[in-house]
Design a protein that fits this description.
heterotrimer; A alpha+beta; B alpha/beta; C mainly alpha; A: two-stranded antiparallel ribbon; B: D-Maltodextrin-Binding Protein, domain 2
Chain lengths: ~350, ~350, ~375
C-alpha cells in the first residue's frame, strides 16, 4: 500500500510535506474564532482555530447532554406514569434519528423560522435572537475585577475548610450541621460585597444593530447553536438510557436496606444508589462523550468551522494536500480519543469494586 | 513482522511502478469519456426533468467525446464538489474536468494540472436582495457573506474586503444549491460567486427581480477544462476540440450547416477544419478526417452552446460580454487550424 | 357474596372476598398510584399534561390539522392553509424513494426490496418452515440484489450515480451490515489470537477506526483512496463508500463481539479441549454461538448506528434522502421548507430504527429464556 502511494505520488510528481502549514497564508476567513485570527495567518493557525471550535462544541455539548441525559434518565424511572412515558418518547426519538439529520433539522429551523436581525426578537433589550445568531451582552472586565476574583477565591477556600470541618464532625459524632450552607452563604455574600465595594468593575457591552448586523456583545452563531444543541439532544437520549440501566443495575436489596435504615427517598438516591450506579454508568458515558466529540465533525454540513472544515476542508482544497491534511486530521482525533479512553481505563481501575 | 512485510512492500512498489497509461489510449480502449462536472448549477450542469445532465460544461464533455468517438453521448459524468474535483482528476477517476474551474498559477503549477484553454471568461460578483437597498459592493461593510468553500472566490473575497478596509462575516457553504437555500433564508446579506453563477442562482429563485447583482466585479475568473499535467496528447485533444468549437462560430459553421459546408466551403481554414483538406498533424492525435464535423453536428458551435444554455433566451439570461468572438469585441479567439 | 346483610360478622374461614376499595383499583386507583401519588407527583402530572396540550395544539396543529398535503409550490401551500406544507414531500416522493433511478427500471429495486423481506425472514425468525433453503437464499441475496439493481447479464446497466433516496440508504445499510458482521467477528477473534502479528494488526485497526470520525474516512474514500491503490485502477465512488462503511462498522462490531467472547468462562474452552475438539471447532461450535448470543444487544446497536450513519454520505455528494432533501430545498418552488422535508426523512429513519431495536429486545428476551435466573424481587 505504501508502495502504491509512493508510486502514485511519483507519477503525479507530488511530494509529501507539511511545510505548507506554516509557509502559506491561509487566505480564508473563519466565522467564529476563539483566538485572534485573520486570513493572513498561516494554515496552521487556521487549523488551531478549527480545533478550538471543535473543542468548544464538544465541551458545551457534553455539558448540555449530561444535564439533559441525567434529567431524562431519572424522569424515565419516575413513578409518575405520564412523566416516564414522556421521557420514553424523548429517548426513543433521539436515539432512532440520525444525528446529521438532527443537525440539519435544527439548523433549518433556526435559519428559516427565526426573524432577520432587523426584526430580531428582543429579550429585555439586551439579548437578541435572530437567524444570524443569538446576541448576548458581553462582560467587559475592568482591572478592579481581579480584586473581586481574589476575594471570591479566599471565600471559597474558607467555605471548603468549613465543609471539611462539617464532615469531620459528622464522621466523629454523627451530628450534621449545615456547614455547607454557611460556606456557600459566606462566599456569595463576600463576593457581592466586594463587587460593590470595588465599584462594579464589570460592565456589559450590549449588542446594538448597526448596519447589517448586531455589533458588540457576544454572538453565538446559528451554526454553533444548531450543532451544539443537536449533538446534546442526540447524545442525551443515549445518556438517559445509560443512566436508567445503571440505576436499575443496583440491586433492589440496597434500596430496601436503605429504606429499613430509615433513609429518605432523596438520601437513598444520593448516598446509596447513585454511587453504585455510577460504576456502571461511567464507562458507557465516556464513550457517549467520545461519540459526541467525533460527531461534532459533522459541523461541515452546516458550515461551522471546526477542525474538519478548516484543516480537512478549506486548507485541503486550497493547497491540494489531501494526504497530509487528512492524515493530520485523523491523527488529531485519534490522539484525543485514545487519551480519553486511556484516562477512562485508569478511572475504571480505581473505581473497581474492592472485594473483601 | 516488518521483515515479513518487506517483500510485499517491494513487490507492491514494483507493480505500482508501471507508469500510468496514456490517457488518450486508455479512453479510446474504454470506449467512453469520464468527465467531471458540477453538482448542479443551472445552465452549466444540471439534470433536466428526465434526469439527463445538460449545460454549458456538459456540452464540452460531449464535444470531446464526439472528437474521440464521433458520438457525443459516449460520456459518463461524475458530479464533483469544489473539494473533490482536483483529486478526482489527479487520481484518474475522471479524464477531464469541466466544472467552472478558474485557471490560476498555483493550480497550474502546484496542483499539477493543465488548463486546456478558457471556455468562459468570468469574474466574481455580489448578489443582494433588492430590499436591502445596497447599490455598491463598497456599502457591504459588516455584512454576512455566503460563500462557497474550496474555491478562488473565498480568497478573492478576503482580499477585496482587506483591500477596502472593510469587514465581513463569512458564512461558508459546500454546494451551490445549499448556498441558494441559505441565502434565501436570510442567513446572509449577500451571496458571492462568479457572475455567471450569480445569474444562474438568481434564475433559480422564485422571483428573480427581487435580487440585484451589484456592478462590481472583483476578480478575473477564466474558467476552462482541466486535464492532468504531463499528458500532452490528451491536453491537445481537449484544447483543439475547444478551438474547433470557437473557430466554427467564427466561420459561421453551425450544427445545421456543417455537413454541407464540409463540402461546399471555399475558405481553406474551414476546409482544413472540416476535413475537406488535409490538416497536418491530425494523424499524430489519431483523429479522423471529419472529426470536427462530428463535434459540431453533435453539439453545435461555441455560440450555439452558449445561447442554448446561458444566453438571453434561457432563464440564466447572460449576455455574451467578454465571451463574444474577438471580432465582436470579446475574448474568444481560436488559434488557427493550419 | 350476594345477600350478605349487616351485621358483618363471619365465622372463621367464611369471610367473602370483598372488592378492593374503589380508590385503589380501576381507573381511579391507577390514576392515584401512577399520577397523583404525592403532591409533588400531582404537580408533575399537571405540568406534563400542560406540556402535552401545548405540543398537540401547537406542533400537532401545524403538522396535522393545518397542513397541506398536495399543492404545486410553497406559495400554493400557503394559500391553502397555515400549517406544514407536506406537498414538498408528496410531489417528490419518487425521488425520495429511488433517487434518479430510471422510472422504466424501477421494478428492479422494487423486486430487490421484496426479495430482501423474504431473505430476512429466516434470519430474523427461527420458527420458519423451510428455513435451510431460505438461509441459502439469504446468503445469495446480496449478489442477486446487486445484479438486479446494477444490471448486466441481460439487464440494462444503471450507473451508481443514479441511485438515491431511501433505496441508497438500504443499499449501503444492507451491504454494510452483511459485510461487517463476518469481518467484525474475524477482527474480534484476531484481537484474541495467540499470534502476535494478527493481534497487533487487529487491535490497531479496531482502535484506529473507532478513534476517528466516520466522516474523515469517507473523505479518504472520496478524495484519496485512489492513492492507495495500484496506479491506473479506480473504483466507483459508491463501492469505495461501501468498503469504508463496512470496515468502520466492523471495528465497532468487533468490540461488541469481544465483550461476548470475554464473557465466556474459561472452563468452556477447557472442557472442549478435554473432549479433544480442535481449536477451530471449539471456536465455531462452543465459543461463538454463546458469545454472539451475549453480544446481540451490542451488535444490534452497531447496526442501528451504521444504518443511521448512512446519512453521512450526503457530505461527499451521494444523493441519499438527505441529499434529495437538499436538492428539493434548492428548487425555487419549495424554498424554505426545511423543517417539513427533514422531519419526513427523520420519520423514515425513526420507524426503521425503532423497528430494529424492538426486534432486538424481542430476540434478547427469547434467547434469554434458557439462562433465566430468579432475580431478587
Amino acid at each position: 500500500m505504501i508502495g502504491n502511494v509512493a508510486a502514485n505520488f511519483a507519477a503525479l510528481d507530488k511530494t509529501f510535506s507539511f511545510r505548507f502549514l506554516w509557509e502559506l497564508p491561509a487566505g480564508y476567513d473563519i466565522n467564529q474564532t476563539l483566538i485572534s485570527y485573520t486570513n493572513q495567518n498561516s494554515h496552521l493557525r487556521a487549523a488551531v482555530v478549527g480545533l478550538l471550535n471543535t473543542g468548544l462544541v464538544a465541551i458545551v455539548g457534553i455539558f448540555l447532554a449530561t444535564v439533559l441525559g441525567f434529567s431524562v434518565g431519572i424522569m424515565r424511572l419516575s413513578n409518575n406514569w405520564l412523566v416516564s412515558r414522556i421521557a420514553y418518547v424523548y429517548v426513543e426519538f433521539t436515539r432512532n434519528t440520525p444525528v446529521l439529520l438532527l443537525i440539519l433539522l435544527w439548523h433549518g429551523i433556526i435559519i428559516n423560522t427565526l426573524p432577520h436581525p432587523r426584526q430580531a426578537l428582543s429579550l429585555g433589550g439586551s439579548v437578541f435572537i435572530s437567524n444570524r445568531g443569538f446576541y448576548v451582552p458581553a462582560p467587559v472586565i475592568e482591572p478592579a475585577f481581579w480584586w473581586v476574583a481574589f476575594v471570591f477565591c479566599i471565600a471559597t477556600i474558607i467555605a471548603a475548610a468549613l465543609y471539611r470541618r462539617g464532615r469531620r464532625l459528622q464522621l466523629s459524632t454523627g451530628i450534621r450541621k449545615p456547614y455547607l450552607l454557611y460556606g456557600l452563604g459566606l462566599t456569595i455574600a463576600a463576593t457581592i460585597l466586594a463587587f460593590y465595594v470595588a465599584g462594579t468593575p464589570v460592565t456589559l457591552d450590549r449588542p446594538t444593530l448597526r448596519g447589517f448586523n448586531y455589533r458588540g456583545g457576544m454572538t453565538l452563531i446559528p451554526e454553533f447553536v444548531a450543532l451544539t444543541w443537536a449533538l446534546a439532544f442526540y447524545t442525551s437520549g443515549f445518556i438517559a438510557e445509560n443512566v436508567r440501566s445503571g440505576i436499575n443495575a443496583v440491586d433492589r436489596g440496597q434500596r430496601d436496606a436503605a429504606c429499613a435504615l430509615g433513609l429518605t427517598e432523596n438520601r437513598t438516591m444520593k448516598l446509596v444508589i447513585l454511587p453504585q450506579a455510577m460504576r456502571v454508568i461511567v464507562p458507557p458515558l465516556t464513550s457517549s462523550y467520545l461519540d459526541l466529540m467525533k460527531n461534532s465533525s459533522l459541523a461541515i454540513a452546516i458550515g461551522y468551522m471546526d477542525l474538519v472544515a478548516t484543516l480537512g476542508g478549506i486548507t485541503l482544497t486550497q493547497t491540494g494536500r489531501e494526504m497530509e491534511t487528512m492524515l493530520l486530521v485523523m491523527a488529531i482525533y485519534l490522539a484525543i480519543s485514545l487519551s480519553i479512553s486511556w484516562g477512562m481505563n485508569i478511572y475504571n481501575r480505581r473505581q473497581r469494586l474492592v472485594e473483601r | 513482522m516488518i521483515r515479513r512485510l518487506l517483500p510485499l512492500v517491494v513487490a507492491a512498489t514494483c507493480l505500482g511502478g508501471i507508469a500510468q497509461a496514456d490517457t488518450l489510449e486508455t479512453v479510446r480502449e474504454r470506449g467512453h469519456l469520464k468527465c467531471g462536472i458540477n453538482t448542479g448549477v443551472v445552465g452549466f450542469a444540471a439534470p433536466d426533468d428526465k434526469g439527463i445532465w445538460r449545460g454549458f460544461d456538459v456540452d464540452l464533455c460531449r464535444a470531446v467525446a464526439a472528437t474521440l468517438f464521433g458520438d457525443p453521448d459516449k460520456v459518463k459524468y461524475s458530479n464533483l464538489t469544489g473539494k473533490t474535483r482536483f483529486t478526482a482528476l489527479r487520481s484518474g477517476e475522471i479524464d477531464l474536468l469541466s466544472r467552472n474551474t478558474t485557471w490560476t498559477f498555483s493550480r497550474d503549477t502546484d496542483l499539477q494540472l493543465t488548463f486546456a484553454g478558457v471556455n468562459y471568461y468570468d469574474g466574481q460578483g455580489f448578489m443582494v436582495p433588492k430590499n436591502l437597498g445596497v447599490k455598491s459592493a463598497k456599502d457591504l461593510d459588516g455584512a454576512s457573506v455566503c460563500i462557497q468553500t474550496g474555491t478562488t472566490t473565498e480568497l478573492n473575497l478576503a482580499d477585496y474586503f482587506r483591500q477596502n478596509g472593510m469587514t465581513y462575516k463569512a458564512v461558508p457553504i459546500e454546494t451551490t444549491s445549499e448556498a441558494l437555500t441559505i441565502y434565501l433564508a436570510g442567513r446572509c446579506d449577500v451571496y458571492t460567486t462568479d457572475a455567471s453563477g450569480l445569474a444562474a442562482t438568481r434564475a433559480a429563485t422564485k422571483n428573480p427581480d427581487a435580487h440585484d447583482i451589484l456592478p462590481e466585479i472583483i476578480s478575473k475568473e477564466p474558467l476552462g477544462p482541466v486535464v492532468r499535467q504531463g499528458d500532452d496528447k490528451w491536453a491537445d485533444i481537449v484544447r483543439w476540440t475547444l478551438n474547433a468549437l470557437i473557430a466554427a462560430e467564427e466561420f459561421g459553421v453551425t450544427a445545421a450547416n456543417v455537413k454541407s459546408m464540409a463540402g461546399s466551403s471555399k475558405n481553406p481554414e474551414v476546409r482544413r477544419l472540416l476535413g475537406a483538406e488535409e490538416l497536418q498533424g491530425r494523424a499524430a492525435l489519431g483523429l479522423k478526417a471529419r472529426w470536427a464535423v462530428d463535434v459540431i453536428s453533435g453539439v453545435g458551435n461555441y455560440g450555439e452552446i452558449f445561447e442554448r444554455h446561458l444566453g438571453k433566451n434561457t432563464p440564466v439570461g447572460l449576455a455574451r460580454g467578454l465571451n463574444a468572438q474577438w471580432k465582436n469585441g470579446g475574448l474568444m479567439y481560436a488559434a488557427p487550424f493550419r | 357474596m350476594t345477600g350478605n346483610p349487616p351485621p358483618r360478622t363471619y365465622p372463621p374461614g367464611d369471610h367473602p372476598d370483598l372488592p378492593p376499595p374503589p380508590a385503589t383499583s380501576g381507573i381511579v386507583g391507577w390514576l392515584r398510584s401512577n399520577l397523583f401519588s404525592s403532591p409533588f407527583n400531582s404537580v408533575l402530572t399537571l405540568v406534563a399534561i400542560w406540556l402535552i396540550y401545548l405540543f398537540v395544539t401547537g406542533v400537532g396543529g401545524w403538522m396535522v390539522f393545518d397542513s397541506v398535503v398536495s399543492a404545486d409550490s410553497r406559495a400554493a401551500c400557503q394559500a391553502i392553509d397555515s400549517g406544514a406544507c407536506w406537498a414538498v414531500v408528496t410531489t417528490r416522493l419518487d425521488q425520495f424513494v429511488y433517487g434518479f433511478y430510471p422510472p422504466a427500471e424501477r421494478w428492479r429495486p422494487n423486486l430487490a426490496f421484496a426479495l430482501l423481506l423474504i431473505a430476512l425472514v429466516p434470519i430474523l425468525f427461527s420458527a420458519v418452515p423451510i428455513r435451510r433453503p431460505l438461509l441459502w437464499f439469504a446468503a445469495a441475496y446480496p449478489f442477486i440484489a446487486a445484479w438486479l439493481i446494477y444490471g448486466g447479464f441481460g439487464l440494462p446497466v444503471v450507473g451508481t450515480g443514479q441511485y438515491g433516496g431511501f433505496m441508497l440508504t438500504l443499499i449501503i445499510g444492507v451491504t454494510g451490515i452483511s459485510a461487517s458482521l463476518p469481518l467484525g467477528i474475524l477482527l474480534a477473534l484476531g484481537r484474541q489470537s495467540k499470534l502476535l502479528a494478527l493481534r497487533v494488526i487487529s487491535t490497531a485497526f479496531i482502535e484506529f477506526s473507532r478513534g476517528v470520525p466516520l466522516i474523515t474516512l469517507l473523505f479518504v474514500a472520496s478524495t484519496m483512496l485512489n492513492y492507495f491503490l495500484p496506479p491506473g485502477t479506480s473504483f466507483d465512488l459508491l463501492v469505495r463508500v461501501l468498503i469504508m462503511v463496512s470496515l468502520f462498522a466492523a471495528a465497532y462490531l468487533a468490540e461488541a463481539v469481544r465483550g461476548g467472547l470475554q464473557a465466556i468462562p474459561r472452563g468452556q474452552v477447557e472442557a472442549a479441549e478435554a473432549l479433544g475438539l480442535s481449536r477451530w471447532t471449539t471456536t465455531r461450535r462452543i465459543i461463538l454461538p454463546q458469545a454472539l448470543k451475549i453480544a446481540i444487544p451490542g451488535i444490534v446497536n452497531v447496526f442501528v448506528g451504521l444504518y443511521k450513519d448512512t446519512t453521512l454520505v450526503v457530505i461527499i455528494g451521494l444523493l441519499d434522502p438527505l441529499g434529495i432533501a437538499r436538492a428539493v430545498l434548492a428548487d425555487a418552488k419549495w424554498n424554505g421548507l426545511a423543517t417539513e422535508t427533514y422531519l419526513f426523512v427523520a420519520l423514515f429513519f425513526f420507524l426503521s430504527c425503532f423497528a430494529i431495536s424492538r426486534y432486538s429486545l424481542w430476540l434478547e428476551r427469547r434467547l434469554a429464556t434458557d439462562h433465566q435466573r430468579t432475580s431478587t424481587p
